[in-house]
Design brief:
- With about 230 residues, the chain is of the alpha+beta class.
- Helices cover about 55% and strands about 10% of the residues.
- It has helices spanning about 5-10, 20, 25-40, 50-65, 70-80, 95-105, 110-125, 135-145, 165-170, 195-215, and strands at about 170-180, 185-190, 220-225, 230.
- The protein has a 4-stranded mixed beta sheet with strand order 1-2-3-4.
- Helix 4 (about 50-65) packs across helix 8 and helix 7 (about 110-125) packs across helix 8 (about 135-145).
- The radius of gyration is 18 Å and the shape is globular.
- About 40% of the residues are buried.
Length: about 230
Amino acid sequence: MLKPNRLRNAGIRMKITYEAIKANPSVETYIKKADESLKALGYTEHSFAHVTKVAMTASEILLTLGYDEREAELAKVAGYLHDIGNVINRIDHAQSGAVMAFRILDKMGAEDEDIATIITAIGNHDEATAFPVNPVAAALILADKTDVRYTRVRNQDFASFDIHDRVNYSVKESHVTVRKGECIELNLTVDTNECSVANYFEIFLNRMILCKKAAERLEHAFRLIINGQQLM
């Protein structure tokens, strides 16, 4: 059986899978090193816990909405790879990550159409330049921007928390629910002794607006519920 790089050299393309991406040693290294860079910069966790959660959520969103399994698989791959560009720099990491993903996927012999879909989603996930240009990109945006939880905070010195630490740490429970034919809902339980709802919007308003656009691309509304109150 030919290995992926030999398949590519022979002009044979393969259906890329999530399991193949997870097993790729280069991908593992890039995710690990990218998170090390973000840790040094003071960012929340962007390692395997985050990218795995994003991958699974993106896939589940599309499957629940009736998209086919192949499109959901591509969303899962895009979710797992979406932050590798941070190994280069946090600035423009979506675009650098898309280029890196192209190189990895091409070397593995992935089909051109699959590569195009995946790198388009990755290149359009960061809020500074993001847009839900296709269903996979929309699902990735929703999965990434709704991953807010206290376990992503690495700073253990509460006295030195900045507003990003406080907001993330205050979120004790976070659930994404897809109500087919109606809405995609982010339901948060926030400890308002640690962070006010106003602080949440100060940090995440642009992300929530982007989630609204992504949900609309999937022909659904977006709802944000905090402590039982619908705020969007």
